[in-house]
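A.,

Following up on our hallway conversation. Structure tokens first:
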């Protein structure tokens, strides 16, 4: 596995437990201790064998992935196409339009001073600010009105202006947000698509910063209208680029149809850790079948799973380039106890073994995603875990259930 911060290491650990040889390469120094003592690692790059399967758990290494694929290696998840879809928002929207997926009014900028003139054309609309590239998702902001947005962008420009090469303003569309995901083997869609709804805000009642995901529900959705009129329309470009991996379309659905918002062409966090345990098959075989073009019928233990994200401070901060891992991660070594009984329902992120004990590794304080088909069971497990300063949302049993119900009304 080629990883930036080791988020996909839990998948690799399961593949190892199934009897396969594995190796993890993490490129970002701040996370280099993640999964130390748990899976074999290489801190100096990697030299794959011809019969190895190489998993890319994040976008951002597309040139490397495409070069390896060109030389005959078996690749899942990485490509220049994936990088462009996720990190170049304008390209992503162009692909949606080419595929016939409706998009909200969206304008790209490389200068904050151009914003007021643009907004003057739309005094009766709300817009969402989304930075392009790899800037933290916590900067994404849905404004109340134009004045609110302009004031917020003054702050962003002063604080982060030198780090943001471009950004988009996207019309806020009323409706319900749902993600739809398919898997592609280079020539065709395989397996069964799924939907995800997730709570992104850090605290109860959708307060606090956006974290990407504080909890989710994922379920199988074969025959869904949202899939058919959304992500499935992208199969032409996936085939043209010989893409092997997953593709998720985050969209707003309402009575007017499906409105594309953004692509996720990689492991979703926490959707992938929530989806994989639903499979009634070895995870290694799952990936091997896809990259070899041999996927048949997928078997599942259950058709729906829920998860809640568990963390400790300083999460949800984001590391800045040049941070020393020890300075940035003051909680390295914090003990994680009470998990052994529930290990089949915990997907660990920033952990390592220290003196044969599970502890927090380097990183932001992201500990795990706890999952179960019954979200009440998730909360029981979270209550049993013994971790100093543990933090998680306690309202997702109601919040996620209502989100799923609304999304299903359109499916």
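Then the amino acids I'd put at each of the 411 positions:
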């Amino acid at each position: 596995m080629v990883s930036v911060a080791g988020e996909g290491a839990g998948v690799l650990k399961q593949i190892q437990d199934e009897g396969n040889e594995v190796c993890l390469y993490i490129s970002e120094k701040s996370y280099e201790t993640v999964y130390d003592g748990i899976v074999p690692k290489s801190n100096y790059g990697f030299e794959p064998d011809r019969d190895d399967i190489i998993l890319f758990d994040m976008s951002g290494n597309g040139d490397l992935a495409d070069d390896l694929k060109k030389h005959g290696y078996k690749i899942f998840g990485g490509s220049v196409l994936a990088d462009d879809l996720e990190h170049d928002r304008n390209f992503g929207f162009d692909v949606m339009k080419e595929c016939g997926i409706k998009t909200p009014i969206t304008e790209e900028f490389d200068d904050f001073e151009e914003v007021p003139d643009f907004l003057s054309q739309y005094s009766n609309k709300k817009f969402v600010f989304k930075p392009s590239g790899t800037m933290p998702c916590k900067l994404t902001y849905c404004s109340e009105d134009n004045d609110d947005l302009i004031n917020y962008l003054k702050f962003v420009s002063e604080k982060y202006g030198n780090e943001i090469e471009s950004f988009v303003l996207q019309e806020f569309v009323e409706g319900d947000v749902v993600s739809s995901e398919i898997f592609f083997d280079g020539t065709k869609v395989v397996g069964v698509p799924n939907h995800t709804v997730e709570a992104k805000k850090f605290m109860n009642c959708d307060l606090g910063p956006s974290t990407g995901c504080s909890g989710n529900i994922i379920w199988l959705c074969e025959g869904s209208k949202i899939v058919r009129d959304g992500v499935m329309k992208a199969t032409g470009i996936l085939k043209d680029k010989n893409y092997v991996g997953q593709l998720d379309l985050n969209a707003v659905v309402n009575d007017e149809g499906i409105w594309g918002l953004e692509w996720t062409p990689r492991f979703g966090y926490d959707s992938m850790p929530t989806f994989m345990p639903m499979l009634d098959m070895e995870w290694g075989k799952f990936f091997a079948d896809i990259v070899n073009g041999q996927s048949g019928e997928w078997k599942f233990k259950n058709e729906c799973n829920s998860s809640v994200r568990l963390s400790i401070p300083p999460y949800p901060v984001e590391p800045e380039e040049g941070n020393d891992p020890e300075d940035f991660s003051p909680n390295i070594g914090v003990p994680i106890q009470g998990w052994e009984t529930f290990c089949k329902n915990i997907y660990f992120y920033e952990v390592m073994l220290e003196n044969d004990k599970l502890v927090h590794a380097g990183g932001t304080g992201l500990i795990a995603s706890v999952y179960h088909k019954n979200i009440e069971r998730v909360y029981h497990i979270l209550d049993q875990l013994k971790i100093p300063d543990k933090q998680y949302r306690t309202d997702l049993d109601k919040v996620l259930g209502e989100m799923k119900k609304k999304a299903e009304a359109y499916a």
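The CA atoms of residues 85 and 92 lie 5 Å apart. Curious whether your intuition agrees with the design.

B.
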